[in-house]
Amino acid sequence: MEGGAEIVLLKGRKVWKPVKLLDMIKTKKLLWPVLLLLPALVIYGVFFIFPFFFTFYLSFMQWNLISPDIEPVGLQNYQNLFADKVFWISLTNTAFYVAVTVPLSMLLGLGLAVLVEGAGRYREVYRFLLFIPVVASLAVTSYVWMLLMNPTNGLINALLAYLEIAGPNWLNDPQWALLSLMIIGVWKALGYNIVLYIAGLKGIDKRLYEAAEMDGAGKWKQFTAITMPMLSPVHFFVLLVSIINSFQLFTTIHIMTHGAPNNATNVLVYEVWQEAFQFFDIGKASALSMVMFIVVLLITILQIRFSESKVHYQ
């Protein structure tokens, strides 16, 4: 039996016969698979299913995280959330961050993947160097970036001064603070995207390029007519993962800016943390978490619907 079906002999030939779940329960064939999955199901339930429904429950409650009293308030938390100016600023900053970092990290990842694959004997070295940001601790690298972006003695402004360019106050200027975090976000995501695109490039049949070259197609034509369409599943996966990861921006803000200056770098996840652990308004933090979940879910559904006609797996 495999995948809800069993192999039976019909006129001397092996054929697949669907097995009903009720039949599996009656014959106890489901017991062993359930026992094997049970540890993973328990972990998933404790750390994912229960927190989700508990957060949904708390979004209709008033609780300060310390008091044992939890009072129902209905939709008050959502009303307070949508009336909060900081929420709309955080939502705008998050949308802007996602809209810039996701396509930029995808374009750079694809371009560098193509260059690395054509680098000959040094391709392994380039892969190693470009993948370092992925495995490096974001907390540690955030402090390194703070030193690099120091307005008075940071390396970046020193290089700009050498080129006779006045360097900005990266993390303290409202016009540059979020952009600084975008630079770090793209740098962090680049190596992961490169690895995915390299895997996609290796899966493309080389005979397609040979046939296109025989027909007189140049490198750019081969890239647009063969590489890009054949990488559509990778594009979809990278886009989906990049958007979800971008919505989870927290560490760099918590270490580098704390949402400053004047909420210029405040995003949804950081506001959830503030509402829960600085202002002890668990109900409002839970309501914001549910709003984030709905936003990401809608974006994911739209991506899947759009990909039905754009993504080709063969």
UniProtKB/TrEMBL annotation:
Main subcellular location of this protein, as a coarse class: membrane
Instruction: Determine the domain of life of the protein's source.
Output: Bacteria
Q: What InterPro entries does the entry give? A: ABC_transporter_permease, MetI-like, MetI-like_sf
Q: Which UniProt keywords apply?
A: Cell membrane, Membrane, Transmembrane, Transmembrane helix, Transport
Query: Where are the membrane-spanning stretches?
Result: 30-58, 95-116, 128-148, 176-199, 236-256, 276-302
ABC transmembrane type-1 domain residues:
91-303
Q: Where in the cell is it found?
A: Cell membrane
Matches recorded under Pfam families: BPD_transp_1
The way it spans or sits in the membrane comes to: Multi-pass membrane protein
- Spell out the PANTHER family in the cross-references: ABC TRANSPORTER PERMEASE PROTEIN (PTHR30193), INNER MEMBRANE ABC TRANSPORTER PERMEASE PROTEIN YCJO (PTHR30193:SF37)
The record's comment on protein family reads: Belongs to the binding-protein-dependent transport system permease family.
Q: What is this protein called?
A: Sn-glycerol-3-phosphate transport system permease protein UgpA
Organism, as annotated: Sporomusa silvacetica DSM 10669
- The organism's taxonomic lineage, starting at the top: Bacteria, Bacillati, Bacillota, Negativicutes, Selenomonadales
State the encoding gene. Answer: ugpA
